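If you are new to this repository, start here. Below is one unmodified record pulled from the training split, so you can see the exact layout before writing a loader.
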Amino acid sequence: MDDQIRMRLKGVQLYEELGNAGIVCLRCGISRPTLRKWWTCYQAMGIDGLQEKSRRPNSSPLQKVLPIRVQLISDLRNRKLGHRRIQNELKRLHDISFSTATIHKVLERLEKQYLKHKRTFRKHTIRYSRPVPGDRVQMDVCKIATGIYQYTAIDDCSRYKALRLYSRRTTDNTMDFFDVVIEEMPFAIQRIQTDRGREIFATQFQKRLLEWGIKFRPIKPGSPYLNGKVERSQRTDLDEFYSTINLKDSNLHALLVEWQHYYNWDRPHSSLRGKTPIERLNEYSDKTPLREEVAAKFDPSKERIQEQSYRDELALRKLK
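And here is the target side for that same chain:
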């Protein structure tokens, strides 16, 4: 019998002899709950009940991180994804819910807890966000592979976006995608912001914008950061969607539609403080203007067909 069990047995025997818990606690230097626990265990199991029991918790978060799941986390980190993106991808691809703290512990054990991204510092960069959904929608075209171009439109305020794939960057495809944007965006669009691609500056497309009462706001050359939200959105598509599928899959268009729905309805955004785009839309629903209100404020006399050449465009502005 070791000293610890001998001390506990002495306390129990003293309590049986005196019958006064207060005196026993003072003599043994223990609390009443401790004496009560010793007494209960001794009555139930005898001397064996006085042995030290395991303090291991009934449940441990790391126990659910089985080796196969550790490998999944490692594979996702090899795709250069951060903690939050790994959490999203585990939920989307494998229906596994881990906290970012659990993911961090696993990566720490794997010695992969930090990403070593070289970030370019831009001086005097001012980040902005438009006040209501539809105030400004950024549009861009991204080449995914040969013969596969993704058209993207994303709302500046809510990050709600529309996606489609085409085989070429043409005016007809731009017109078709614009119809998709009008149909799928659940708010009135006030402005379209794009780069200076030829397929977007087509006169036919700009006239369609005027018909819908939408202002055309192209950015100046060499400033992709002005279209930063659509650029980052396309980076997310490449990292999280296209890296998990086969580009030769016959259901590629359907898979993209599923990804778009997941992005808008289920994927939390750090820039939205963990909210999804649809939650952001619902939050601003009372402030979002209706199509009739947007149309009433649109003044077609202040808009005109713009030139793709930025130099020619500046020259025309000086003539006014």
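Two things worth knowing about this chain: The first strand starts at residue 137 and ends at 145. The two ends are 102 Å apart (CA to CA).
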